[in-house]
Amino acid sequence: MALLERAGCLLSSHVTRGVSMPSPVSWISGHADVLIRGLSYFDLKVKSKNPTTEGYGRFCSGLKMSAILETSELPAVFDGVKLAAVAAVLYVIVRCLNLKSPTAPPELIYQDSALARFLLKSCPLLTKEYIPPLIWGKSGHIQTALYGKMGRVRSPHPYGLRKYLTMPDGATATFDLFEPRSEHCIGEDVTMVICPGIANHSEKQYIRTFVDYAQKNGYRCAVLNHLGALPNIELTSPRMFTYGCTWEFGAMVNYIKKTYPQTQLVVVGFSLGGNIVCKYLGENQANQERVLCCVSVCQGYSALRAQETFMQWDHCRRFYNFLMADNMKKIILSHRQVLFGDNMKKLHSLSDADLSKLYTATSLMQIDDNVMRKFHGYSSLKEYYEKESCLQYLHMIYVPLLLVNAADDPLVHESLLSIPRALSEKKENVMHVLPLHGGHLGFFEGSVLFPEPLTWMDKLVVQYANAICQWEKTKPHCSDAEQAMSSQE
Which residue, 135, 174, 184, 488, is most buried by CB atoms nearer than 10 A? Predict the structure, then answer.
């Protein structure tokens, strides 16, 4: 068996050294002797009734099989098809599961400042290596797939109250409110206002897991339900959530500020929600009042730049695009009586041809172009993506801002990561965190196979929020101490 493991190590070593991988057939020709010895030994050991004597004798005879390779004929039991199958399996396992990828602390991009130094001391997760589950955790695709299908493991069911807000255009915004279950670390009233990912809401498992953990750390949580996303809530106006509309999120934040005049806010956005919260804060300086910090996880920053990469097949982005488009079509069509009535067609210039294109759409861009942009009267898809992206608003955010992405996120192309990197290098209040693994909103942790209920992402957001709360409470003292040290120098 050790020889078979050696064969796997030889194959995986090509991947880790960055060497171009040979085809399975050429790989076999170079390592056939190792495979044959390992296979023959494993086969004889399993069939042997006496592994210490008879099995050893058969193993010795199995070693002679390597000599047969030098002849022109190969026994049928060890024909080339079986060898190719073994090599192909090893090849796929090593490549797809990324088994030889190292674990390391996340890459941090920030400017040296008092705040950054305080965060590095107060947030151990920023400097500690993130260790995903050994077998599958280093694959961004599997992390993303588990998040998409399973959400989280053993997700809790926090109890909250659903609130309804009437918008100026007649739409009914909803959000769920969860009260803290313990005292906050600084003993003050702090509320997390949370915006989920595309077509998500407070009932999603990853949201429930995060909310439960935040409650236990003393945070009140308000979770926006994207307009039209809840299956049991009907639309009351011919409009649903879009890529960058901040109206419902702003209404929720204003409700929290009025209802809890003493509370301070921590703004959190996941994926599409990250775009919405960053855009909301940058749209108006008044929106940043009473906001302690903002955390954005796994967003793409610019829909205009992302649309080209989303049509590419590398890292299966085109496939993910199709799956998300299919989900969006189902949600839109579930509200077709409200969205596609005669009044709607007149108001937003929709035609029967647009509805036909919706049925045949295979990408988010087609849906956005034929339906979503018209909810807000944009004349083109380009204008819609430019105006709805947070890219033009990021430099207007002055509260501490944590931007989290994963290097193996199959949905966010690496070219998009230059946006948070450049911002973090220019602004002292911004820090970009980039772990090697995690996929899209996965960030599962675990030892070998089974993940833990709480993810690295959940812990990081709460740990960062705690550190910012402590920073705001002790900031005057920190500033005085730094001034004294600089004067001594």
Answer: 174
